[in-house]
Amino acid sequence: xxGKDILVASVFNKGQTTRxxxxxxxxxxxxxxxxxxxxxxxxxxxVEAPLEKAVFFLRAGSILPLNTAVQGFETKEKEARTYRIFxxxxxxEFEVSFYEDDGKRWIxxxxxxxxxxxxxxxxxxxxxxxxx
Length: 132
Fold this sequence. Notes:
This protein has strands at residues 6-8, 18-23, 30-32, 38-39, 43-48, 56-59, 62-67, 81-86, 92-98, 115-121, 128-131. The chain is an all-beta fold. The chain has two domains: 6-59, Immunoglobulin-like; 62-131, no CATH class.
């Protein structure tokens, strides 16, 4: 687990192409990151897990901030944020706060939240992207 919302399930053995894993019990379930497929929590599953691709799951009701700016020496844009939303399976609302460390100050120690997303989605399947 990485925090409370991300479960990483990589393979480690040469030639291994699948991975058995236990999804922690959670009333909202889990999404596989790349496919967006939803799984109920509290069960053991087997998933395709090619060595060249990390396999990870996100808890339903979570939001993953991503830096989508092109990274390189010649680019001027250093940061552009996209928020990948993994909604609840039922209509509902959830809230997520997040923090970003600028490498100089301990913002999180002061309790300063720099990002707050409140989602009220009315969909039942798949995931959504919100750009802020």
